[in-house]
Amino acid sequence: MSDLLRLGLNDLHEELGGKMVPFAGYSMPVQYPMGVLKEHLHTRAAAGLFDVSHMGQVILRPKGSYEATALDFERLMPVDVAGLAEGRQRYGLFTNDAGGILDDLMFANRGDHLFVVVNAACKAADIAHMQAHLSATTEVLPVTDRALLALQGPAAEAALARLVPQVAEMRFMDVAQVPTVFGELWISRSGYTGEDGYEISVPDGGAEGLARALLAMAEVAPIGLGARDSLRLEAGLCLYGHDIDETTSPVEAGLTWAIQKARRTGGAREGGFPGAARILRELAEGPARRRVGLRPEGRAPMREGVELYAGETAVGRITSGGFGPSVEAPIAMGYVTVEHAATGTALAGELRGKRQPVTVADMPFQPTTYKR
User: Fold this and answer.
1) Any idea what the Cα angle at residue 124 is, between residues 118 and 126, rounded to 5°?
2) Which of 30, 35, 158, 282 could be cross-linked to 21 through a Cys-Cys bond (beta carbons 3.0 to 4.6 Å apart)?
3) Does the pLDDT value for residue 40 go beyond 80?
4) Contact, 330 vs 296, CB < 8 A?
């Protein structure tokens, strides 16, 4: 663990009894004394506080006009950047020339610049990618002096509003910059659990004070990586490097909702992004395989790497799987050939040398509760 990067709040996590494990080059809390199951259920019932400071925060500051920066950034992905309204955030995907996904990310229009949050394991590559392609119009400025916290669950609004009343008025994917006693907070109403909630970028000097103020509230508990994973799996959300990667197209991954009309065939700014030929073809004709939800029979979870069969024919593989505490059953997601992707299709997963029944299911497994 000695060569791992430490979170700014590392001492607080240890004080809270966090079990620290290696993740994306950082020492991260995987769980606290409450345990993964109770942390998961607490987030669904009340509010959970996650430290996601390992993620990459980046400011894209125009050298000239905001419009030029937005269009330049848009050329890196099949997503409408130019049409994003000020004060709003959107999900994005960097793609490669083969139509695969380099990373998934969030970006926000903050009036005179863009604010981007990328995955921890990809952040060095993402920053280099942006610097290589945006330098003519844009300063790519990694943010290295702020923590990132996520407050998730049905009580998140009431909890955060005690400290920052303005957040009660925000809707899903709104962003705001709010001066507080903890420093200026950069807040988005978003997260990766399927629950209503917020992600909060806070100056390093104010991070511990903000975390302690939230954790002092009866409804807020610290939550680790274990429950973060089971929550996002129930919500049917992809984990980069597992459910999506450089070989996976956005269409195969079921992320076509993230490709707005303006970037599609016939749109105002169709194509022009890496891998456009494959991605636009798959939008028109359909892909050869699709990401699907899966419900194993019985109580034994099927995890990443389990091969899927229709009769004696291998038709796919599980990319994420585990027990869903809220649905009280094993759940999984993975890729299967399009002929076997319909909801209700009966398949088998190879588990410890035996084939066990598994059924293609709709996602999310747990209804989302975003405040729209």
Assistant:
1) 50
2) 30
3) yes
4) yes
